[in-house]
């Protein structure tokens, strides 16, 4: 599949949702993924319910919320993080921003440019180390941008 075909596929929310499900099923240490526009709008998401519960507990909410809540919050913050990351790498002379990663005491989160218009937000599995998260992130990006199985048979 050509790069152009991948970009066209990434414009279809249903295709993106399917890609996220496939990627999460094959990449160990990724517990959630959101594809968002650069302005922070959710295109598609696939987040483990355990991560959703942990996110709610972290902010002290008692009510159960939908996975879309985490997807919407992380996509909005990803847009800001990507903008800051791009400015930071430029100011530091580090070239084009490739990733913005955050490490917490219970796991990692990262923001990665997929295309000029889309970002990939990855949420590491609980307790994943930064080293394992970096490896899993590279596998996830390859799964998202690499050749896709032919599903039109």
Helix and strand layout, with pairings?
Elements: H1 3-9, H2 13-26, E1 30-37, E2 42-47, H3 49-58, H4 67-91, E3 100-104, E4 107-113, E5 118-124, H5 130-145
Antiparallel strand pairs: 1-2, 1-5, 3-4, 4-5
What structural keywords apply?
Roadblock/LAMTOR2_dom, Beta-Lactamase, 153 residues, Roadblock/LAMTOR2 domain-containing protein
Detail the poorly predicted runs: none
Radius of gyration: 15 Å
Which CATH first-tier class would you pick?
Alpha Beta
**In oligomeric terms, what are we looking at?**
single chain
InterPro entries: Roadblock/LAMTOR2_dom
Protein name: Roadblock/LAMTOR2 domain-containing protein
Domain Roadblock/LAMTOR2: 16-123
Organism: Actinophytocola xanthii
Walk me through this protein's architecture.
The protein is of the alpha+beta class. It has a single domain (3-145), classed as Beta-Lactamase (2-Layer Sandwich), CATH 3.30.450.30. The chain contains five helices and five strands; from the N terminus they run ααββααβββα. The protein has helices spanning 3-9, 13-26, 49-58, 67-91, 130-145, and strands at 30-37, 42-47, 100-104, 107-113, 118-124. It has a five-stranded antiparallel beta sheet with strand order 2-1-5-4-3. The longest helix is centred in the middle third of the chain and has 25 residues, at 67-91. The radius of gyration is 15 Å and the shape is globular. It comes from Actinophytocola xanthii. InterPro entries: Roadblock/LAMTOR2_dom. Residues 16-123 form the Roadblock/LAMTOR2 domain. This is Roadblock/LAMTOR2 domain-containing protein.
